[in-house]
Design brief:
With 190 residues, the protein is an alpha+beta fold. It folds into 2 domains: 44 residues, Single Sheet (N-terminal domain of TfIIb); 115 residues, C8orf32 fold. 35% of the residues lie in helices and 27% in strands. The strands form 3 sheets. The protein has a 6-stranded antiparallel β-sheet with strand order 9-8-7-6-10-11. The longest helix is centred in the last third of the chain and has 19 residues.
């Protein structure tokens, strides 16, 4: 339902003036006050090739706003889908892959299960490493009460993934994740 009926994938946004799909990427723009109020940290700017109008694609992080627009890319999809899971009473978390993908995990029968709304995939954690051929580095899960490095679960070659993890030492990463985890636990309350 979510992939086919609820959300729409957006490569290039439709023109708000003439509704044409054809737009040309111009560059990044600064979010205006309204866009910023809905969590947009960046905005892609396009020019409509039909009417020459300005087309803005704010990359919203506010799931309530995403439920209104119902379009975006993997980040928007996973953000909104994770909200829907939580609203349905599931324990869930947002998973961020540093090589540019985002999906959800949901706790089912005591086990964290991969759930990608863009792919319509459930419990297929090797989709990216084996199916897409991605060379994963850092895959971090952000829950309401925890932050966890889940990279090992999503790679079919942990040794190769470790060799690619060169932004910080493993001890440094563990400390960063532990600090973020502690902050999430404190923010969520008792």
């Amino acid at each position: 339902w979510f992939k086919d009926d609820c959300f729409r994938w957006t490569n290039k946004p439709r023109c708000p003036c003439c509704d044409a799909e054809a737009s040309e990427f111009v560059g990044m723009a600064t979010p205006n006050d309204e866009e910023r109020s809905f969590g947009a940290g960046r905005v892609e700017a396009y020019r409509c090739v039909t009417c020459n109008g300005e087309v803005r694609f704010p990359r919203y992080n506010d799931p309530a706003r995403l439920l209104e627009s119902r379009h975006g890319r993997c980040g928007e999809w996973a953000n909104c889908f994770t909200l829907i899971l939580a609203a349905c009473g599931y324990t869930c978390r947002l998973v961020v892959d540093w090589t540019d993908h985002v999906w959800s995990e949901v706790l089912l029968r005591g086990k964290w299960v991969h759930c990608d709304p863009c792919e319509g995939a459930l419990d297929a954690p090797l989709t990216y490493a084996a199916g897409w051929g991605k060379k994963l580095t850092y895959v971090i899960a952000f829950g309401q009460r925890e932050v966890v490095d889940v990279t090992a679960r999503y790679t079919n070659d942990w040794t190769a993934a470790l060799a690619r993890r060169d932004l910080v030492t493993e001890a440094g990463l563990a400390a960063l994740v532990a600090a973020a985890d502690q902050q999430a636990r404190m923010a969520s309350g008792p």
